[in-house]
Design a protein that fits this description.
about 90% helix, about 0% strand, about 110 residues, elongated, mainly alpha
Length: about 110
């Protein structure tokens, strides 16, 4: 697979990941045994971390190779997305979404 195709796929996955939480919030809160309001905090932390991630990964990619930073951000995004699916408590889910948002902030601007 060509690198450009992989970049498009990662950008699409981050785009979907940003918007997928809203419609599935009730089922996530049911599976975690929590209220939708407390699980909704994951949306806020994701957005906050997404903005901070851009501030971190932008200058980092200027100092290092952009390709290396996009690879690292893509791997981090993938790993912590899987981790967020495997969480069993609300706070683990919120923490995982915080990390997913941070790495997502490195994928979109650099691609």
């Amino acid at each position: 697979m060509k690198p450009l195709t992989l970049l498009f796929i990662m950008s699409f996955l981050v785009f979907v990941d940003v918007r997928i939480l809203t419609p599935v919030l009730p089922s996530i809160s049911d599976s975690l045994g929590s209220s939708p309001g407390s699980v909704g905090l994951a949306m806020t932390t994701y957005s906050f971390a997404y903005g901070i991630g851009q501030l971190i990964f932008g200058p980092l990619s200027d100092r290092l190779s952009r390709i290396a930073v996009v690879r690292a951000a893509s791997i981090g995004f993938s790993v912590f997305t899987i981790f967020s699916a495997l969480t069993v408590t609300t706070w683990q889910f919120i923490g995982a979404r915080l990390l997913v948002g941070t790495f997502a902030g490195g994928v979109i601007p650099l691609t």
